[in-house]
Design a protein that fits this description.
The protein is built from ten helices and 16 strands. The longest helix has 20 residues. The N terminus is likely disordered.
Length: 365
């Protein structure tokens, strides 16, 4: 999975600090359970799969009703390019017996989905997404345990739920190894939210955000949990603390993933505003192949509607980008790929002129 560099708008201004993020390669790939491989079940499954893709790409937990979205879900064949069926063994919920489950695996066509979002005014969240390291402590039978990358028992249920809900929302959540190196971090440090110790232990993992959770039984038979989102580079806009009560540890953990995705989408999803234009000069590509790579990269970004070439010079490519993103957010999103870096913010433009920006092409990371 490709690693990409993330800089926030405030970092652009101060040129201080960097972080790592990931491009999510499976954003348009969904598999759902279906009753059979028949046409009627395939159509129903494809509609449910398209709903999940819309949830991932908009950043919205629930897709608001509109006639156009409803038509798209009913006639989802227009939005996918291939599908197949697979059978996997699962454990039955009632008797625990192993049963065979049929899954519909389906790949949606990115540009067709994005066009639907533009026509309906729904937000668009790029596949460049912050990676998350989850430190989760479970209290059970008067003992506390950290959910690891190889969990067992109740911790396994928590980890599976968080992975499942993260995939539903299109985010990447990982857990610490809890090997000898990680065990230098005490459970009491996690439970007490001692961030100096937690950040020290997190340095070995490339992540943009840390999700810290503690889950404990409550007197009513359910669980109470407290969660905190923090950024290793001190980005305050994504910091958030919230409490949640649930029927089980897994339910509380699943809700935490949704709150995490909500916070990320508020920051990075481009809302449906007026289509604007920004003038961009890219230096550092220098060759025809380099210029082609710049154009391919920009045209592949979900938040850019169109790229026009204004002029080509031996050391500069002058472009006009059309996007519904605000200028500061567009700058932040452009830098998330690590392909572009700030060379300088162009001098202020006269009133009514198209805003200008100058970046340097760094190539693939």
């Amino acid at each position: 999975m490709a690693r990409v560099r993330l800089l926030s708008a405030c970092v652009v201004a101060s040129a201080a600090g960097t972080a790592w993020a990931e491009v999510v390669p499976w954003l348009y790939d969904v598999d759902v359970a279906v009753a059979s491989q028949g046409d009627a079940d395939r159509r129903r499954g494809a509609g449910a799969a398209l709903t999940e893709v819309l949830t991932r790409v908009t950043g919205l937990r629930e897709i608001p009703f509109s006639a156009k979205v409803d038509d798209a879900i009913r006639d989802s064949e227009r939005y996918y390019v291939r599908y197949g069926f697979a059978t996997r063994d699962i454990q039955g919920e009632e008797d625990g017996d192993v049963i065979a489950e049929t899954r519909l695996e389906i790949h949606f066509e990115r540009n067709t989905v994005l066009e639907l979002l533009r026509q309906t005014g729904l937000p668009v969240w790029s596949a460049d997404r912050p990676s998350v390291l989850a430190w989760v402590v479970l209290e059970r039978d008067a003992a506390r345990h950290v959910v690891s990358a190889a969990p067992v028992g109740v911790a396994e249920e928590v980890a599976l739920t968080m992975h499942r809900e993260a995939r539903r929302r299109g985010v990447v959540v990982t857990f610490p190894l809890m090997d000898l190196e990680d065990r230098g971090l005490r459970v009491t440090d996690l439970w007490g939210r001692f961030w100096t110790a937690i950040m020290g232990a997190s340095r070995r993992y490339p992540c943009d955000l840390m999700l810290l959770g503690r889950i404990a039984p409550d007197p009513d038979g359910g669980v109470s949990s407290r969660w905190e989102i923090m950024s290793p580079n001190g980005d305050k806009e994504l910091a958030e603390t919230f409490d949640h009560r649930g029927a089980s540890a897994a339910a509380a953990a699943g809700e935490a993933v949704h709150r995490l995705a909500d916070a990320m989408a508020r920051r990075f999803a481009v809302r449906g505003g007026d289509l604007g234009t920004i003038s961009l000069t890219v230096r550092g590509a220098q060759t025809v192949r380099g210029y082609a790579a710049v154009l391919a990269y920009l045209q592949s970004r979900e938040y850019i509607t169109r790229v026009d070439v204004s002029a080509v010079e031996p050391d500069a490519l002058h472009l006009r980008l059309h996007s519904r993103s605000a200028r500061d957010q567009l700058v932040e999103l452009l830098l998330m790929g690590g392909y572009l870096s700030v060379s300088r913010i162009a001098s202020p433009t006269p009133p009514l002129a198209v805003p200008r920006l100058e970046l340097t092409w760094m190539g693939a990371r």
